[in-house]
Design brief:
six-stranded mixed sheet, 6 strands, 3 helices, alpha+beta
């Protein structure tokens, strides 16, 4: 049997926690970002220039990262839930500091302590030629 896709209450929960994450990201609220990632050695984040394995590596990266130039404009967003405890969020974004297009994927799982990112991937691509 396939899981229920985009159960309304579950989708609303993930949309809300994603919005909380996005606000924390652009304001460099490291405490919230840390809270929203699963505190496990199994968590991973592939960034535009780094591969981070385990929560500690992700936390260390966030603490060392510059806190300027983080604002971005999301141009496309897709959130899909699978059942009541699993979701994937994808966005395309731009930043004033670069003409490149950013892409972000997050895998969210409902844990005992709430929704947590268990895997994330950020990449950049050249903007299409007009």
């Amino acid at each position: 049997m396939s899981p229920e896709i985009n159960h309304p209450e579950t989708l609303a929960e993930v949309e809300a926690v994603f919005a909380e994450y996005e606000q924390a990201l652009v304001t460099n609220d490291v405490e919230v970002l840390d809270r929203l990632f699963w505190h496990s050695p199994h968590t991973l984040r592939y960034g535009a220039g780094e591969n981070l394995y385990g929560f500690q590596a992700i936390q260390d990266f966030r603490n060392a990262r510059p806190s300027v130039g983080l604002s971005r404009t999301i141009s496309a967003k897709s959130v899909t839930t699978f059942g009541r405890d699993y979701a994937v969020a994808n966005v395309e974004f731009t930043r004033e500091s670069t003409p490149r297009i950013g892409r972000q994927t997050q895998t969210w799982v409902r844990m005992d302590e709430g929704w947590r990112v268990v895997a994330a991937h950020v990449s950049l691509m050249e903007a299409p030629k007009a």
